[in-house]
Write a structure and sequence with these properties.
By secondary structure, this protein is α/β, with parallel strands linked by helices. The protein contains 14 helices and 20 strands. The longest helix has 29 residues.
């Protein structure tokens, strides 16, 4: 979609469709919709008085102007009760409007954007663009039949009433486009089939981003990681004929800036290995690299937004498959940290590859480490498919994540990492086991990872629930969601 900013008044602007928003009645019309209503001889206000349009949240009505306005059509979308309005509802309303316009086959529309009380100007524009672009996202790369029936919006014009409005609208537009592009890239990677999105393909995507954004990149082969002592990563990788890749992407290397390490689980397909999963829903296990996709997308956005940090993105990428070379329950693995792990289940492979990745991140002496992983089904059971499990060892960092969550609408919920939980993974044969009992599964995953970050401030985000969803929500379609990208970007924006 081509989006541009122009100066203009909605009641005078010719376009295929004019998009307007209204709070729920009995709130009076204000701003652009009021100006259009006056020009239209009270058409919209009359409809609201009669109850034909109430302005309820996401309520949408299309009207033909019949030459009463320069615009051929007017679409009005409800924002709900004014006292309950926030950025999350704003993103959702933009999404619902965009989907309606796209599904109607309308190629061009205009939206007059105006300041709203209680919201920052650029925040308003950015959130509108983000909600719109994420809402109209479609994954159709592999569809070959009737491609001519795929509907897309061609152009949006954001209208500013005054010259002084143009800059904040343009600034919000740019940020919204960068963030949405990153999220959609992550969605594409997660939605892509595992025969296409292999560890090698993930590494090639990282190389492309490194080249386009002047980043440093290392791609370690399994033989190199074995020589370095990454016994956990190697054990998981050797079960597949697809070669594993240990991807390290650096933004702002060598500039004397604070280092933040982002670590993303990159299991491009997870069968469970020897501890094989049931066949039902196994097709969804292509999404087990959602953490790596989020890290890769965040690095891309960070470069475009010119964040003043040294960011290190570490993405251990491999498949987890059964074979004659696969690791087995009962094996004892020596990790890069020197600690040993007794394998109880090969289906708890994510924490194994992350153990080596977290240890590897320590060589960069980071101020903070944040890992993202579709780690445990237990987290989905506990929190559902729209909440990220939040764990960590540093109160300040945990609060920063929670503040970023409140801004982005990517919900997080803290779970404890009390010492007593370590009893669940004590091993008679090694330093610890890779799983405990059925109790506290998500917490046990976090406890395990905590043993590989030493005393560095660290947060673990268990994104198993919201990484891929079956039922769409406002601006989040079915399938891969790109969860974590906006959360990380907001965290980095507010970093002090």
């Amino acid at each position: 979609m081509d989006i541009k900013v122009e100066r203009g008044r909605p009641e005078k602007y010719p376009c295929e469709l004019l998009l307007l928003f209204s709070f729920e009645s009995p709130e009076p019309l204000e701003g652009p919709i009021q100006n259009v209503d006056l020009k239209w001889k009270g058409f919209i206000s009359t409809l609201m008085k009669q109850g034909d349009f109430k302005g309820e949240l996401f309520e949408t009505r299309l009207f033909y102007t019949q030459d009463a306005l320069p615009a051929k059509r007017v679409l009005v979308t409800g924002l709900g009760k004014k006292g309950e309005f926030d950025l999350e509802k704003w993103r959702g309303a933009a999404s619902k409007a965009g989907q309606y316009i796209r599904n109607s086959g309308i190629k061009q529309f205009a939206f007059p954007i105006k300041k709203l009380e209680g919201l920052l100007e650029t925040e308003l524009a950015e959130s509108f663009v983000t909600g719109l672009l994420l809402g109209v996202y479609q994954f159709n790369e592999f569809k070959t039949l009737e491609r001519d029936k795929i509907k897309e919006i061609g152009e949006l014009v954001l209208l500013g009433e005054k010259d002084e409005d143009i800059k904040w609208i343009a600034d919000g537009l740019r940020a919204g486009q960068i963030i949405s592009e990153a999220v959609c890239m992550a969605r594409d990677l997660v939605n892509g089939p595992s025969n296409e999105i292999t560890p090698t393909a993930l590494a090639e995507k990282a190389q492309q981003i490194a080249k386009e954004h002047n980043m440093e990149i290392q791609i370690l082969e399994v033989s190199q990681t074995e020589a370095m002592g990454m016994g956990a990563f190697v054990a998981v990788a050797k079960g597949s004929q697809e070669p594993g890749k240990f991807i390290v992407l650096e933004y702002n290397k060598g500039k004397g800036l604070d280092t933040i390490a982002l670590v993303g689980k990159g299991i491009t397909f997870d069968s469970g290995g020897i501890s094989i999963k049931p066949s039902e829903n196994m097709d969804r296990m292509k999404d087990d690299m959602s953490g790596a996709a989020a890290v890769l997308a965040t690095l891309q956005a960070a470069s475009k937004l010119q964040f003043p940090f040294h960011l290190v993105g570490i993405m251990p990428a491999t498949e987890n498959l059964p074979s004659g070379k696969a690791y087995k329950p009962g094996d004892i693995l020596k990790t890069l940290s020197g600690q040993t792990v007794e394998v109880i289940s090969t289906d708890a492979e994510g924490r194994l590859i992350l153990s080596d990745a977290l240890t590897y991140s320590l060589r960069y002496q980071p101020k903070a480490i944040i890992d993202l992983a579709t780690l445990t089904g237990a987290c989905v059971i506990a929190l559902g498919d729209f909440v990220i499990g939040l764990f960590g060892n540093d109160e300040s960092l945990l609060k920063k994540i929670e503040e970023a969550s409140a801004k982005t609408g990517e919900k997080v919920w803290r779970l404890p990492l009390w010492d007593e939980y370590f009893e669940y993974i004590k091993s008679d044969a090694a330093d610890f086991r890779n799983v405990g009992t059925r109790a506290a599964g998500a917490i046990i995953g976090g406890i395990f990872l905590s043993k590989f970050v030493e005393k560095v401030p660290w947060v673990h985000l268990d994104i198993a629930g919201p990484a891929s969803i079956e039922k769409e929500r406002p601006y989040i379609p079915r399938g891969g969601t790109g969860v974590g990208v906006r959360l990380l970007i907001q965290l980095l924006r507010g970093w002090k």
